[in-house]
Write a structure and sequence with these properties.
Rossmann fold; two-stranded antiparallel ribbon; about 40% helix; 8 strands; single chain; six-stranded parallel sheet; alpha/beta; hydrolase activity
């Protein structure tokens, strides 16, 4: 198909720290997202979609992702599968201080599919930067995830964080889709459509009107 997306699967920070370490992913359950990340990688490799592995690296004294630590290592689900390029970073976006932008240009990529962790941090930073660069972005909602947070601003559950960021992504920045539907789109060579700010707001307002009238 002449209009088929030229995809790359971006596997962000699937490291032991999020699974058996001190920053566990809570929602969706990490076992679910890990299985879907593996399925997405298998589908990409079968379809000839290049895979970029992204790895967060901290200082040796950092409490998480420390250089040389078990927590900082790639999880076996991704380390044991083939990928085409490795990006190591020390900031949230996979673009900042790395060769990712040039690698994508060299490989004529126009669509990024994001899996991995965390939805609201490294995934979000990468999605925003990619969207601003004119790339189409896909976010696999069941192959990503968040932990819960509490700080001076308040408390947010992992489910709330993941859900709200996913809704915002789909309104403008990324097409949010499940792994099954994404695999179907890869096999068909078709894009995954995203929503819009206006349509998202109109749907929410219609819901509110319906609730008020009930």
């Amino acid at each position: 198909m002449s209009n088929a997306p030229r995809r790359a699967l971006i596997v962000i920070d699937v490291q032991n720290e999020y699974v058996t370490g001190d920053l566990p992913i809570e929602y969706p359950p990490v076992e679910t997202s890990l299985a879907n990340i593996g399925r997405a990688m298998d589908a990409a490799n079968a379809a000839g979609v290049p895979i970029v592995m992204v790895q967060q690296m901290g200082a040796a004294t950092d409490p998480i992702f420390a250089q040389g630590s078990h927590g900082g290592e790639l999880h076996p689900v991704v380390a044991g599968r083939a990928y085409d390029h490795l990006v190591k970073k020390d900031l949230p976006s996979a673009f900042t201080g790395t060769d990712l932008k040039q690698w994508l240009a060299d490989h004529d990529i126009d669509t990024l599919t994001i899996v991995g962790y965390m939805t609201h941090n490294c995934d979000a930073s990468t999605i925003y930067e990619a969207a601003h660069a004119g790339l189409h972005v896909e976010f696999l909602v069941d192959a990503t995830g968040s932990p819960s947070y509490e700080n001076d601003a308040g408390y947010a559950s992992a489910e709330d964080i993941h859900r709200v960021f996913s809704v915002v992504f789909h309104s403008r920045f990324a097409a949010v889709v499940g792994t099954d539907k994404w695999i179907d789109a890869v096999k068909a060579g078709t894009p995954v459509p995203r929503g819009s700010i206006y349509a998202s707001n109109q749907a929410a307002r219609a819901r509110a009107r319906a609730a008020a009238a009930a």
